[in-house]
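Note to self: user wants both folds in one dump. Writing first protein now.
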Amino acid sequence: MHDMTMLLIELGAVILALGILGRIAGRFGFSPIPLYLLAGLAFGHGGLLPLDASEEFVATGAEIGVILLLLLLGLEYTASDLVTTLKTQYLSGVVDFVLNALPGAAVALMLGWGPVAAVALAGVTWISSSGVIAKVVGDLGRLGNRETPVILGILVLEDLSMAVYLPILTALLAGVGLAGGSITLLISLGTVSIVLFVALRYGRLISRAVSSDNPEMLLLVVLGLTLLVAGIAAKLQVSAAVGAFLVGIALSGEVAHGARNLLSPLRDLFAAVFFVFFGLSTDPRDIPPVLGVALGLAVVTGLTKILTGWYAARRAGIKTAGRWRAGGTLVARGEFSIVIAGLAVGVEPRLGPLATAYVLILVMLGPVAARYTEPVARKLTSRRKAAPVPAPAGGPAEERLDDPANTGS
C-alpha cells in the first residue's frame, strides 16, 4: 500500500512538472524537449530528487511513448507520398546520410567506442527532429514556401530509412553474426516492401475495416493494432518502433485523420514521459566530461545539415534564399536521436550523456538556425559582393542573394 501511495505521489509530481514545463516552453515559443530532458536529469540517479517507486512504470510508459511517436509519424504520410519522395529525392537522401552520419561514426571510432557504438552515434547525428521542425515551420509561417516540400521530403526519407536502420542496429546490439544480421535486414526490407505494397493496393480496404464512427472504438482498435504489430515486430527483431510506423503508413483518409486527433494527446503525454525516462537513465555528473565533444559535434553536424538542405533545395530549383532557409530548418535533432541513444547505452555508457548534451544543444539551436541562417547568409554574401566585379561583355549577371527576385519562396 505504501509503494502504491509513493507511486501515485511521484507520478503526479512528474506529470504536473511536465505540464508546467510545457507551458513555459510554449510561452517562450520553443520546443519543450530540452526541458523534459533536464527534468529527467533532475529526477534521475545523481539528480536533485531521485525517483524510486515509479521508475519501472516510467520505463513502460517510455516504451509506449516511442511507439506512439512513430505511429503518429506514419499517419502523416501515405504510401504514395513515400514512393514519390523516394523517386524524386533519393539522391538528396544519400547526401544527407553521408554528410551527417559519418561525423558521428568518426567521433565514436576516434573515442575508441567500437563499431557498434559508431553505428549508433551515426544515427544520432544523422536524423533531424520531425516534430521540432514541423513546429518551427508552422511558427515561422513557412508552410506555403517553395522550400517546405523539400524539407518534408528529407524528413520523409530519414523516417523511412529508420525502418531499415533500426533493425540493423538492434541486431548489432544483440550481438548476432553476419548471417543473423543479413537475415534481419532481409526481414526488415521485406516487411517494409510488403507494407508499402499492401498500403498502395489495399490501403482503402484496411482503413475501411478499421474505421468507426465511435471515437472510443476507433481509439481502441488503432491503439490495440499498433501495440500488437509493434510486439510482433520486436519478436522478429524488426523493432517495435518500426512496426508502429508501418501501421501508421497503412492507414489513410478519415481513419488517419481521426486517429491523429484521438492519439495526439496520448502521444504528447507518453513522449514527454519517454524524454524524462531517458534523462532518468543519465547521470548528470557524466555530462561535463563529454560536453566539449557534444558541442564540437553539434557545430559540425549543424553546418552539414545546412549544406544538406541547401543541396536538396538547389536540386529542386529553389532560389538561393530558399536554399539557406531549407538548410537552417533541418538543424534540429530530437526524438529519433534519443530513441537511438536509448537503445545503445548498454554497449557504451558514455553514449547516453553525449547524446543528451548533443540533443540539448541542437534542439535549442534548431529554431534559431531556422530563423537566422538565411539573413546571416544574405549579409555575408552582400559584404563579399560589395566590391563591383566587371562582368564579361554580354555575359549574364551573377545571381545575388539580396536580389529581390531571389527572396521569394
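First done. Writing the second protein, which came from a different request thread.
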Amino acid sequence: MRAVLFLSLLLTSLCALSLLSGPATPWSDVAQVLMGSVAAEDFWVQNAAVFELRLVHVLLAVAVGFALASGGRAMQLYLQNPLADPHVTGLSAGSTSAVLVSFLFFPEFANSYLFDVVPSVWIPAFLGAVLSLVVLQFLYRTTLRRWGVASLALVGLLVNAVCAAALMVIFARLSPAALSQVQAWTLGAIQGHSLTATALLVPLMVGAGVQLIRLDASLKLLSFGAEFASAERVDVVRVRRILLLSLMFLSASTVCAAGSVGFVGLLVPHFTRRFFGADALAGARPWLNAIAGAVLVVVADFASRTLTSPLELPVGVYTALLASPFLLLVMVRSGVAK
C-alpha cells in the first residue's frame, strides 16, 4: 500500500501547488498566515475569487483523471486490448455530438442555466450518451454471439464513425464565433463551472470510477471468457450491464466537466502496469491506476494554466503531449514499433 500512499501524497501536493500558482499568486499571504500575522479567515476572504476559480479546476481535473483512468483499465481488461479506452465505445462521441447540436440549433438554451446553477448544455450531453448507449447495447447484443467480446469495440467504432461524420457537418455550419466557443468541448478543456455545479458533477465521475474499480475482479475473470467467468460464479450479464451503465455516466459527466479529453484512459493503465506491477499490489492496482489518472490530469491542467499564460491551451493538448512519448516507448520496448 506504500505505492497508494505515495501517489496520494503526490496528488495532494500537486493540487496544493495548482491552487497556489497562477497570475494572482497568494504566496505572500500564505507565508503571513503561517507566521501568524494574518488570520486564516482574512486570507480566505481576500483570495476567495482566486481559490474558487482554481478549486473548480483542481476538483474537476482530479475527478476527470480518476474516472477516465478507471474506465481505461476496465475496457482494456474486458476487451483484452491494450489500445482500448472509454472512448472506444462511442459514448463520449455521442455526448459531445449532442452538445454541439445544441449549440448549433439551440444556442440560447445551450448558453443558459437551469435554476441559475446547472448549465443547460448538460442535458443534451447526458441525452447524447444515453442515446449512444441504447444504440450500442442494441447492436452489441445482436453481434455478441457472432464476434464475442470484440463486438463491443466494433460497434463502438461504428458509433464513433457516425458521430465523427455528424461533427464534421456541425463544424461546417457553425459560425466562426460559435466554432471558437465549442472548441473547448472537442479538444478537452476544463470548464469554468461554479462550485455548486462542480459539487454536483464530481460525485458522478468519482462514483462511476469507483463502480468500475469494484468490477475489476469480475472483469479479470471475464477476460478469460464468459464460460470461465460463469464457472467462477460471475454474473456475466449483470457485469456487462453495470460496465456499460458506468461508462455512460462516466462519458457524459467527463464531457460536461472537460469536453473530450483523450489519452488518459489509454496511457495510465500502461503506466501503472509497468511501474506498479507486483503481484502483491493486485488488490490495490485499480486504485493506483485511478489516482495516477488524477495526477496526470492535474499536471496537464497546471501546465495549461501556467506554461502559456495568459493563453490557456486545452487540457487535452497536454495529455496528448504527456502521453505520446510514453506510449511510443511502450510500443518500442514491446516490439510493436519495428
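Dump finished. Worth passing along: The chain has one domain: 2-333.
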